[in-house]
Amino acid sequence: MRRRLVTVFLVPLVAVLLVLGGAYAWSAARSIQQEHISELLGDVAYFVTSARQALRSGSPDLVAGEAERYYELYGTRVLVVDRSGSLWASGGEQPVVLDENTKAQIQLALAGRRSELPEPALPWALTDSVMVEPVLENGDAIGAVVVTASIDVARETILEQWALLLGGAVLATSIGVVVVFRLATWVLRPIRRVDAAMEAIERGDVEARIADETGPPELRSMILIFNRMAEEIERMMARQQEFALNASHELRNPLNALLVRVEYLATGLDSDWSRDVEETREEGRRMTRILDTLLNLARSSERGAAEEVVDVAEVVSDRAEAWRQSASRAGISLVVEGDEGVQTETDRTILESALDAVIDNAVKFSPSGTRVVLAVADSTDSAEIIVRDHGPGVGADELAHLTERFWRSPRNRSTPGSGLGLAIATDLLTSIGGGLRVESPDGGGLAVHLRLPKGGTS
Fold first, then answer.
1. Among candidate residues 440, 435, 328, 324, the one with its CA nearest the CA of residue 388
2. What is the DSSP annotation of 235-300?
3. What does the DSSP assignment read for 40-64?
4. Which of 92, 154, 181, 432 suits 365 as a labelling partner, its CA being 20 to 30 A distant?
């Protein structure tokens, strides 16, 4: 974002500097060239007067001496031609060689016409200035004065002006960069504080707040709103934790009383009921583990149960056995297949709860006389449990909605349920770093894949 802010501010600044600087540079170059031409016109007028007197008296020395001194002082060559166009007097020791353009201007001057002034040009395109002025006597041209001036001084002056202008532009740009960076920092500092606070809240630090009072008024208002929102989130989470804590604590007493009553009833039953009593005890112990997880979750705002090395195939077999009687009453058989000895480091209670939700969903929607297959697959970095049923399934366009809360297929509205089973399983698996995927296999029904990361196990 800093880069975009700097670009937004600097591009117009540089564009304005280029436009104004370019206009000023060209104006300065024109002004210096016009000043040079004005000085040259004054010198030409002076030598025209001297040449008129020399031509009238027939003595070239009258103008030659001045032309010589002028050349020595300024390096500007002055030539005087007579009525025939022949060189009559000159300043400087070097031989005079006139180009075709100068000869043409001399002919125009002898015809009584003045030469045109040089057009302004860029410094590197400038050439020596040549001015040809007729020497008139009673309206007739009796000769011409040719002044050839070097443009080096004017060129150097222009380049000096441009160098100063460039230095000023660089200085202005540097100041602009500093100002823009400080402005961007001033604007972005509160936003960075908001980002840091949001990351802290995402990590579980619901007490994170922003104390930054700098920045634009709009951002300060946003910070106040954010702090109020964070406080409201903290209050809501506190209420939820308190509810979970109270609910799980209150459920422990009736659960313990229920387990005691089961033990009491078991003393009066014969050995034929031993298996049912043991399964009831195991379900009671599992309910106790779930309540412990809720208590730890409420106390620490994190997943409470410690991770342990879990035999996935064993968990699948245990849960299949726990659901076998319920499935048999619905005319459905549970079959366990796949790899054995697949281990992963995870939360057993959460895994069992997620698997129960998926098995419950499969049994609920499978027709009588079919079977539900629970398979375990092993891979390098994950373990997978596949729960395959042969129920009515769903259309391809409905697969993505199966893990949404309270969503139910229109064709299954008459089946009891709340539409939360797969959504809860997805949330539980996500909390332990896993995931849930649903697909429609060939032959109908659904195949629910529960993926578990291997963690530190092999």
1. 440
2. HHHHHHHHHHHHHHHHHHHHHHHHHHHHHHHHTTS-GGGHHHHHHHHHHHHHHHHHHHHHHHHHHH
3. HHHHHHHHHHHHHHHHHHT-THHHH
4. 432
Contact 149, 40 (CB under 8 A): yes
Residue 386 makes CB contacts below 8 A (sequence gap 6+) with 338, 373, 374, 375, 376, 377, 447, 448, 449, 450
Residue 240: C-alpha distances to residues 131, 158, 237 (Å): 97, 78, 5
Helix (H) or strand (E) holding 15: helix 2-57
Phi, psi of 386 (to 5 degrees): -115, 120
Q: At what angle do helices 61-74 and 2-57 cross, to 10 degrees?
A: 160
Is the whole model's pTM more than 0.70, yes or no?
A: no
Q: Considering Cα of 250, then 253, then 256, then 258, what sign does the dihedral take?
A: negative
Per residue of the chain (458 residues), what is the pLDDT tens digit? 667 767 777 788 788 888 888 888 888 888 888 888 888 888 888 888 888 888 888 888 888 888 888 888 877 888 888 888 888 888 766 556 677 788 888 888 888 887 777 776 676 666 677 888 888 888 788 888 888 887 777 788 888 888 888 888 888 888 888 888 888 777 777 777 778 887 877 766 777 777 766 667 777 777 888 888 888 887 887 787 777 777 766 777 787 788 888 887 888 777 788 888 888 887 887 777 677 666 655 554 444 445 788 899 999 999 999 889 888 988 999 999 887 878 888 888 888 888 988 998 888 888 889 999 999 988 878 899 999 998 887 877 778 778 776 666 655 555 554 566 788 788 888 888 889 999 988 888 889 999 998 864 44
Amino acid at 424: I
Distance (Å, whole) CA 132 – CA 51: 13
CA nearest 131: which of 119, 114, 112?
114
Residues 90/80, Cβ–Cβ less than 8 Å: yes
The terminus-to-terminus CA distance of the chain in angstroms comes to 44
Angle at CA 448, nearest 5°, toward 443 and 451? 140
Question: Is 193 within 8 Å of 223 (Cβ atoms)?
Answer: yes
